[in-house]
Amino acid sequence: MHFEILIEDQSGKKALDILMPKIIEKKHTYRVISYRGIGRIPKNLKSHTDARNRILLDRLPELLKGYGETYTNYPINYSAVVIVVCDLDRRCLKTFRQELLRVLNSCTPKPKTRFCIAIEEGEAWLLGDIPAIKAAYPKAKVNILNNYQNDSICDTWELLADAIFAGGAKALKNEPWYVIGKEKSTWAEKIAPEMNVEQNASPSFCYFRDKIRELI
Fold first, then answer.
1. How many Å apart are CA 195 and CA 22, to the nearest integer?
2. Average pLDDT, the chain
3. 78-114: string of b/e by CB count within 10 Å (b at 16+)?
4. SS3 10
5. What is the pLDDT of residues 115-153, one digit of tens each?
6. How confident is the model at residue 50 (pLDDT cuts 50, 70, 90)?
7. Burial of 121 (0-12, 13-18, 19+ CB in 10 A)
8. Secondary structure tally for the chain: helices H, strands E
């Protein structure tokens, strides 16, 4: 089986490129494609933004339509699925899922697709493995990590920054946006290799992991 994974940022790609081999066997294939932000689903399901801007939800109707047309030409014994990974942020989970399904249902033919939503943000999947964070950052502030509630709505990346970044989120927020993105990618590259995917405490990560294996 092949997994085509669409994710909204580079740090998420860094993490999943490391984590996917821990989830699936080598006989299966995957590709993680990162975008430059999440954006929003167009009201008429037709994107009005330049494809070169690479904003995930803005492009999603066209992306899924394209995958549907492509996958219909695959050999019958070859299975491929699209996995769309988004941060929930402050959205309503039920409403957001309905909006995503509306996009998928507008496609003819529909590609096999699953939506996996990180609650609240992708850093929640890293915070689901506190021992991995401590291994990657031995000087991490343990009191902050131990008080974290998995998949809580709590400004997740800022909480992780407070635990492992010098000066915390306040200092990092004073940096340009691209510096923040680069730092998040560094966290993913350092923490993900230490993670045990079987013992992650983030419910939304476990949903992603189990959905991948269920499809297999």
1. 9
2. 94
3. eeebbbbbbbbeebeeeebeebbeebbeebeebbbbb
4. helix
5. 999 999 999 999 999 999 999 999 999 999 999 999 999
6. confident
7. buried
8. 10, 4
For residue 84, give the DSSP letter. Answer: E
CATH of the domain spanning 2-122+201-215, picked from 1.20.272, 1.10.390, 3.10.450, 3.40.50: 3.40.50
| Distance separating alpha carbons of residues 150 and 156, to the nearest angstrom | 10
Nearest to 55 by CA among 101, 5, 9: 9
Amino acid at 169: A
Asked if residue 90 lies in contact with residue 121, where contact means CB atoms within 8 angstroms, the answer is no
Q: What burial class does residue 177 get, using C-beta atoms within 10 Å of its C-beta: 0-12 exposed, 13-18 middle, 19+ buried?
A: exposed
In degrees, rounded to 5, the angle at the alpha carbon of residue 21 between the alpha carbons of residues 18 and 26 is 150
pLDDT of residue 95: 96
For tokens 């740090």, name the residue.
Answer: 11
Q: How many CB atoms lie within 10 A of CB 53?
A: 13
Please give the sequence-ordered ranges of beta strands (E in DSSP) within 23-121, or none if there are none.
Answer: 29-34, 80-87, 113-118
Cis bond before residue 75 (omega within 30° of 0)? no
- Both tokens of residue 43? 């009201």
Q: Where are the chain's structural domains? A: 2-122+201-215, 123-194
What CA–CA distance (Å, rounded) separates 100 from 116? 10
